[in-house]
Amino acid sequence: MNRENHDPWYVYVILTEKSRLYTGIARDPEKRFYEHLWDRKKGAKFFRSDCPQKIVFVQECDGKSQALKIESSLKKLSAKKKRMFIEEANTRFI
Questions:
Q1: I need a surface site. Which of 21, 42, 61, 80 has the fewest CB within 10 A?
Q2: What is the 3-state secondary structure (H, E, C) of the chain?
Q3: Torsion sign across C-alpha atoms 65, 66, 71, 76
Q4: What is d(CA 56, CA 35) in angstroms, rounded to the nearest whole number?
Q5: Which domains are assigned to the chain?
Q6: What pLDDT, in 10s, does the model give residues 4-59?
Q7: Which run of H or E residues covers position 7?
Q8: Per-residue pLDDT tens for 44-79?
């Protein structure tokens, strides 16, 4: 049985206190957000100099492979284009 088909992966984008955007993947984006916020060992090094503020985008994916592909595509966007993408996908963004 392929676990990937039963437990979805998510691509998420976090807005930081300095208005930077961080893109990642996780099975549970909310849990991952709190790891970034409170757990220096499990959280990304990116957040050591700029605290996460809120999740501004989440997309459910069919599996880890798809999530990694979408994450890679988002990371290639400029900050301006990434913000435009998020605004179109989520009208509650900043």
A1: 80
A2: CCHHHCCCEEEEEEEECCCCEEEEEECCHHHHHHHHHHCCCCCCHHHHCCCEEEEEEEEEECCHHHHHHHHHHHHHCCHHHHHHHHHHHCCCCC
A3: positive
A4: 16
A5: 3-89 (3.40.1440.10)
A6: 456 899 999 999 999 999 999 999 999 999 999 898 788 888 898 899 999 999 99
A7: none
A8: 888 988 999 999 999 999 999 999 999 999 999 999
The residue among 22, 27, 81 whose CA lies nearest residue 56 is 22
In whole angstroms, what is the distance from residue 79 CA to residue 67 CA? 19
- Specify the length of the chain in residues: 94
Give the Cα separation of 30 and 55 in Å (integer): 8
Which is nearest to 32 in space by CA: 22, 40, 42, 41? 42
